[in-house]
Amino acid sequence: MDLAPTKSKSSSIIDCDFHQTLKSFEDLKPYLPRVWWPRLCAPEATLPITIFKPIPLSRRDASPGKGLPPGSDPQYAIEDALNRYNISKAVLTGSLLTVSAHNNPDYAAAIASAFNDYTLDHWIPTDDRFLASILVATQDPVLAAREIDRLGSHPKVVQVLLPVGSREPFGQRRFYPIYEAAVRNNLVVAIHGGGEGDGINPPISAVGQPTTNFERHNILAIHHMSQLNSIVCEGVFETFPTLKVIFIEGGLAWVPHLMWRMDKNFRGMRNEVPWLKKKPSEYIIEHCRFTTQPIEEPDNHELIQMLSMMRAEKTVLFATDYPHWDNDSPTFVLNKLPGELRRRIAYENAAELYELNHSHVEKEGVSR
Amino acid sequence: MDLAPTKSKSSSIIDCDFHQTLKSFEDLKPYLPRVWWPRLCAPEATLPITIFKPIPLSRRDASPGKGLPPGSDPQYAIEDALNRYNISKAVLTGSLLTVSAHNNPDYAAAIASAFNDYTLDHWIPTDDRFLASILVATQDPVLAAREIDRLGSHPKVVQVLLPVGSREPFGQRRFYPIYEAAVRNNLVVAIHGGGEGDGINPPISAVGQPTTNFERHNILAIHHMSQLNSIVCEGVFETFPTLKVIFIEGGLAWVPHLMWRMDKNFRGMRNEVPWLKKKPSEYIIEHCRFTTQPIEEPDNHELIQMLSMMRAEKTVLFATDYPHWDNDSPTFVLNKLPGELRRRIAYENAAELYELNHSHVEKEGVSR
Prior knowledge:
The structure is a homodimer.
Chain A: E1 14-18, H1 37-40, H2 43-46, H3 74-83, E2 89-92, H4 105-122, E3 130-135, H5 141-151, E4 157-163, H6 176-184, E5 188-192, H7 213-219, H8 221-233, H9 236-239, E6 245-248, H10 255-269, H11 280-287, E7 288-291, H12 300-309, H13 312-315, E8 316-317, H14 330-334, H15 339-353, H16 358-367
Parallel strand pairs in A: 1-2, 2-3, 3-4, 4-5, 5-6, 6-7, 7-8
Helix pairs in contact in A: 4-5, 5-6
Keywords (chains A, B): Lyase
Domain Amidohydrolase-related (chains A, B): 14-356
Protein name (chains A, B): Amidohydrolase-related domain-containing protein
């Protein structure tokens, strides 16, 4: 991480992973049915809490003061991140991402819904650069689809956000109401880290729970891999040909391996998936996007090779993960990249994914 | 797969994954306590059977005839693979690899033990080129260690074989009796595909069971990743500094991603693992080895780049996976590689790992 401000004002940046959070669970009360209020007073019953959680999760220097959590004050976050790094747009990816790991699907849906209202009321009006995600709990995809239809037409909403942790892979048919609603509302589907190994979900590692948060964090991307593999294999992109899926906070360097393995196996086992009309890697490059943070940090020539293998000029988008402890500054990531690739990753790929009008954004940048 | 014979007689090859199997479970009876015999007559109770299993698992053309399973007749396998491909040594990796997924640890240990006796009696004497693994069931590591001590001094035994599927990651302390016994007997520890998602083990994918064998096979390597990550993070290589671990049938191209992610996180979280004295990638390159099959098949220059990223000149070993359906011939794999790297992967890395005397092997090759 490098906290130096971005050098050039001319280089536009879209941040695809910017975390807003609550000052406290009290913030949800205006949007939450009273039947659920008692849970807000009992932290152990509010949401599944991972025993592996890094302490602290967020940068202490990103706190707005007065003992408030980092990312809980829009004005502070605007100064501390958007202005400091000259960010053109920031997609809010929220918090409460263990919501899909809760045992109660009705409560989980109500919490996600209340958080969405809180975001639209308390964050979106504070700065034109913020864009919103609709957080949904995946335990009940029909309730999730209802939430998407409730808020999907809001002009600042650009995507549906699914925490990656799940008991069932997202390619399976019971999740189709979510994709139908996303497509109906012209929204991207975002799959973001959260809920792995918590609550009702399977263990973090494929062979049981790890021992340390270090071990946990190293292996988290297997959940992104499993979801991507399921979505492609089940033919979700044949059923929903306009759907785009963005994988957030899963890292990047596993993508070539999975694409290659899927393509190899497709040659030997395509008779099992007759609904697939092209190679798995073609669906991935056309329909899937991946954000940079936490970007792997090998020698730079190896990073560039890996990015080339995954067609990063089309598939990779910049993200800070502000204000989490391991967030990346734009300079740290983008200075590693050659010019044209830097422009694609910093701005163009996200602008195309979210259908943002380039000149409009740049004008806003100038007027601010 | 390319079935053409290996061109040059001079290029020595060690095959690190050669599967022998039983003609039928009856073959185990001479080595198995009578109390377990009734299970051998009831296929559904013998070993966990994966519903995802490819049908057939093995190449039909590798059957010795008379309706016998491929890999069940040493003489046929010697002609069909060792002689055809001019293989100098073949490490037998057996079958019954769901043994660690069985609910009963005593039965599982007895089955593994019987299979080892069968291998040493029926396969090892048939050809000097065969080397043996000791299959152990990991449910009870103390019983596993006893089995390693029982057979570990046999001159043809080169390694202990653990199926990768497990309820607990292999770095955890309850597995240390296995590593102690392996080191005591100067044996490599091999972790081989098998038991993922079967019986008592967690699901195949990190987010629940997949739908097709295609989807299953694409994601299997997350079990290898999880075990490697656990073993390094827990400091197994600090506790057992002479231990070597070979990861078989997990593919290769995921290794750079995991090494890079571990090294990055080590910079931020090494306070959680004070027993680690160097970067995770250094332990991996020094102590871990990976076999080629099922090798990923991107454009060749991308494969060479990926192999360079994982220091393949030291870490990668050739394997056929004979006689399974997706086995690789030496020509198919080795012809992709430049000369020096080909020699390392085809022969040298395995000869060093298993401490095989090069000139001794070549002499055997000539006298045959």
